[in-house]
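Chain X:
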Amino acid sequence: MSFWEYLGSRRERLFFETWQHASMVFQTVLVALVLGVLIGVAVYRSARLSAFATSAAGVFFTVPSLALLGLLITPLGLGVAPSVVALTLYSLLPIVRNTIVGLAGVDRTLVDAARGIGMTRAAILLRIELPLAWPVILTGARVSTQLAMGIGAIAAYVNGPGLGEQIFAGLARLGGANAINMTLAGTLGIVLLALLFDGCFMLIGRLTTPRGIRV
């Protein structure tokens, strides 16, 4: 069976697994974005706290993905839960780091001027610092998305959803019928999703970043 014939015969299943993969990555990056921005906002004014938060988020990068997923089986079982938790943890570092860098890089004269006209600390954060730091934060989210997209394939190790099932099944059947087709379908699906998500982030960046900042 050729690759195109395989795609045609498994069309519905592949669409379903592609949707699962996209949904899992979207949810984990969204959760990581909320958590990462909150952590960054909480620590960016302190060099020590910023270093600690970045180091703590970076610890998860030292844990191999298969090992982390395996460790999560005991408390969370198999399936969606360990997959989502693992991807969220891996997605935190770029967002936390970029949030801290973006907020710390805001021109202090603008902050002082806003404080001088009577703006509260919360108003300065929401109306000046976060909008100016947003392009940097969004870049961190793009990096996290690409990481989650690739690592998400390994979630099949714990019966997680997505295209990783195609890859793992194909690798387990190397030499057998359709093994290459299965592995190639899963891999190309993830690549196409990664490109689609990145294009969406570029569009979001253009729509949400003030024109003066873009220039």
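Chain Y:
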Amino acid sequence: MSGTGRTEGGHGRLGNALSGLAVAVGCVLFLGGFAWGAVQYKPYTVPTDSMTPSIKAGDRVLAQRIDGGEVRRGDVVIFTDSVWGDLPMVKRVVGVGGDKVACCGDDGRLTLNGKPLDEPYLAGGEPASTTPFTSEVPDGHLFLLGDERRTSVDSRGHLEDAAKGTVPVGKVDARVDAVAWPWGGTLDRPDSFEALPGGVSELGPIAPVLAAVGAGVVLIFGGAAYGPVAKRVGRRKAGTGGR
């Protein structure tokens, strides 16, 4: 019987040690992932419906802090420009320096450097633009449109400005990677821009950040729950042995 007691006590000590280790590792993962995410990403609440259906009014998004030089066609970016009201705005990049953006072609689509552009992010049946336009994007600038072309106030409304409706790349603060609340997942990079010079941007480290935070939560709660569960199981075994 003394041998049995030592064995059960050893198992208990080992279990307590492992549960403590799980909680410690969980805290490291949770806090590390949270800190990593805070450095890489900034939260932003989208105030209007100009980016529907991709992003709806009131959605909370996670935007990776980037340098303007990292922006590619198809990216959804957050920028602040005094010409546009000096407030943070979210739009999609459809043209970069040297591009000629126009609408609409014979088939009603936007054209980029004279070629029709597929825009899968537009809602079905929505026009590429409600008004015709042409813009040649200066070097170091971006041409930006909302995905909801009927109501979006974007580069089309600033064509008479000195920058011809474009925004300097240095005005970009971040690139949207995911809709965090309500959870809508990550934003796909449109394939229609992939074959163009510069290609499309890579998704930021949002997946490993969320994985680290999620794993940390599981380990913390799992490790913390071990003690009460083990005690309950022990009491049941003791009660069974007494009978």
